[in-house]
Amino acid sequence: MKKLNFVAAVLFVSLLSSCTKVDEMKLIDPFSGGSKERNLIVVISDIHLGADLSYAECSKNLRSLELFLSEVKSSRHVKELVIAGDMLDEWFIPATVDIYQGKDQADYVNRIASANRGVINAFNRIIKEGKILVTYVPGNHDLTITAENVDRILPGINQARDEEQGLGTYYPQGFPQIAIEHAHRYNFFCAPDPISNQDIAPGTITPPGYFFTRIGVHSYINNFPPAVDVIPEVTPNILGNPSQLMLFLYWNVWSRTLERFTIPNKFDEKIIVTNMDGFRGAYSVNDVLPYQSIRGGHIDVKLYKGIQDTWDQRQVHNKVAVGIPVSQAIANAAKAGESDFQARNQYFLNPQSEARVVIFGHTHDPKIIASNNHKGQKSIYANSGTWIDHNSVVPATMSFVVIAPQSEKENSYTHVRLYNFEKEIVTLMARDSLRF
Fold first, then answer.
1. What is the pLDDT of residues 218-229, one digit of tens each?
2. DSSP readout, 86-107?
3. pLDDT at position 175 over 50
4. Which residues contact 10 (CB under 8 A, 6 or more apart)?
5. Over the range 59-70, which residues count as b (16 or more CB within 10 Å of their CB) and which as e?
6. Is the pLDDT of residue 11 over 70?
7. The domain at 21-89+106-186+335-434 falls in which architecture?
8. Cβ-proximal residues to 40 (8 Å cutoff; 6+ apart), any chain
9. Interhelix angle for 105-115 vs 117-129, to 10°?
């Protein structure tokens, strides 16, 4: 495939050296669909638009994203464009930065729109034309961004939201067999948490992954400096209490994170500035890191106190169809394969689900995986990847999914294709098909 793509690119450049980038995209037309009707569903996710391009995850790729959206708009075959979460980023911000700068979320969203004017304008042109339905599904990085503030910069956009803030699943009209969501509801560190910290931040739903990310970005912008503090050791509670065992597992995840994302600060320094979603002031690493006074003794934590015991309640609140054991949820939170598994577990193996095609974002790991559902029928899971400048999960970035739903014709199939748009040239990464 790589060799064929290379040959095609060489021939194209030699024959049409004066062409534009838009022409280059047509080496492969991802929006032809093999049909004359407007029926394609395009899914992108994890754009991660930030208010400050000096550290935002998507900066260099903005121009390519604008070009991609212009191609979506000009296609006669695209019916829907779905943004499957992490569009507006409230998480990927250095720990010491005051996110709202003393103002509010509306002002912050306006600043995102201003910093990413070309992309926002491209979305709005599609929405205003009215030929393509643009749908937004919340992700964890835009967990607390309200529907009103999304509509503020993208008036008329369709929002697929659950009753609970920060969640949503989208089923394209007429196709209950196709489910699209971000998939953070299945992640211990990223799913909305309306239970923890209510005495500290009333009304908050922000999960611990937010603090993970703020520390990680602080490490990144400081070029992963030598650690100036030592992670305090925590050992399993000798009493063997199940709750304590889960908190020890939680500490392990934090410990591995702090080993990787070193910071130029002592752990008791109040460097994590919040002032959003009920939180006020600044917090230290020690505020989120479980601790222990004596070896083998009781383990405790300041922020997210008791979080290991409330996972089942969170799953009920977040409408997780098939319960995930807390040990599995904590241990596998950083593994992309856990999201892949949950696509099958929550949909294909769930007798209450009609879905045969499931699209997730969240992991930044673009792929297509086929499996059988509980009835033995072929089902397809796809991850739409990301558009950030540098994808640390896999080398690929700027990926998207195109679904060509089947027609009523006897031999018609639903096709799911995964594409890449790096260097503003489309390549086919994977594809599969089935019939409902």
1. 999 999 999 999
2. --B-SSSS-TTS-TTTTS-HHH
3. yes
4. none
5. bebbebbbbbbe
6. no
7. 4-Layer Sandwich (3.60)
8. 31, 33, 75, 77, 78, 79, 80, 402, 403, 404
9. 90
**Which position has the token pair 């929002």?**
159
**Orientation of helix 62-74 relative to helix 117-129, angle to 10°:** 10
Domain ranges of the chain: 21-89+106-186+335-434, 209-309
Q: Which residue has the tokens 């603090």?
A: 211
Tell me how far CA of residue 58 lies from CA of 54, 180, 362, 378, in angstroms: 10, 22, 15, 36
Residue 194: how many CB atoms within 10 A of its CB? Answer: 19
Q: Which two tokens stand for residue 14?
A: 């030699």
Distance (Å, whole) CA 313 – CA 150? 28
Instruction: State both tokens at 317.
Output: 């609140």
Helix (H, G, I), strand (E, B) or coil at 142: coil
Q: What's the pTM value of the predicted model, to 2 decimals?
A: 0.92
Contacts of 83 (CB under 8 A, 6+ apart): 44, 45, 47, 134, 135, 136, 137
Between the two ends of the chain, the Cα-to-Cα distance in Å is: 29
